[in-house]
Amino acid sequence: MKIVVFAGGVGTRLWPLSRKNTPKQFEKIIDEKSTLQLTVERILPICNTKDIYISSGERYKEILFSQLPQIPKENFILEPEMRDVGAAVGLIAAILNKVSKDEPFMILWSDHLVKDEDLFRKVISASEKILQKDKNKIVFVGQSSRFASQNLGWIEIGSAMGDIDGVSLYTFKSFHYRPEPEVAEKFHSDPKHFWNTGYFGTTPSFLLSLYEKFAPEMQIILQKIQEAWGKEAYEKTLGELFPKLEKISFDNLILEKIDQKDGYVIGADFGWSDVGAWEALKEALSTAKDENVTRGKVLLENSKDSLVFNYTEQLSVGIDLSEMLVINTDDVLLVCPKNSVPKIKKLVESLTGSPHENLT
Among residues 73, 76, 171, 306, which one has the fewest Cβ atoms lying within 10 Å of its Cβ? Predict the structure, then answer.
């Protein structure tokens, strides 16, 4: 089985730590390791380095090579410019279709955390077994919800299909993206709904058949790039053709259009967290809701349920903090309530063209 780790996003919701030149997946957040490094380490017990591929942008090549020296250089699939996930997944599918078209592969994301790594690896192995029996399927991975999240996608399951090595398998019913509060509460109380991790397994040949069906113009371009893979003309071909691909999400391009019968869902509780935003990182690193999470030189008094990350040599002191975020870097100090995190992205976007654009 091949495993592809996507590491191309900018991550504005983790600003000011995550920026264009140093996105969140490369920053050392836990144990002096980046979430990208932790993601690769998580899968090494069940996957050889030659079967691990990294999808990212050309601009991050040097930092990728330095953080992941164990991955073969030819396994870094680097895009000349970002064209959203629809094009990125298509490029991976096209290349793997030439490498081994019917071999199962799994797509993971580099900015997530997992607490139960043994169960997580069982989920991947179960996906591989399913796809070895039926190559014309997509296996989605759902995480049991811990709260009524409005910031995550949800996946609805159909009927139970039994267990594979202790992992539950279901038929696929539907997706729901960032529901309203009352809908999220309903999903959280319903065992038929899981958080959608964004992880899925399939085969290159089947995925490309979906591109041919739902995005034929993109598939024609991907076919030309595929033909150049492994040849001297590849870089030139990629540079000329990839920017022509439509800039669209994978969900809008493919997933929203697939038939229910084409999907399975593995649902499990392996302690998954999407740490794409500060409040999500706080939840992932806390053992209790009111616990404070700190990094660096931090002193808190009479404070609860707050995250304070200090990346400077200066002491950061907080008194009477409650549900607050404080991020202190060399050039930016961010202070806001946890529930104001959605406004961070808008603020960063507003800096474009301003005197503070260099801070994005």
Answer: 73
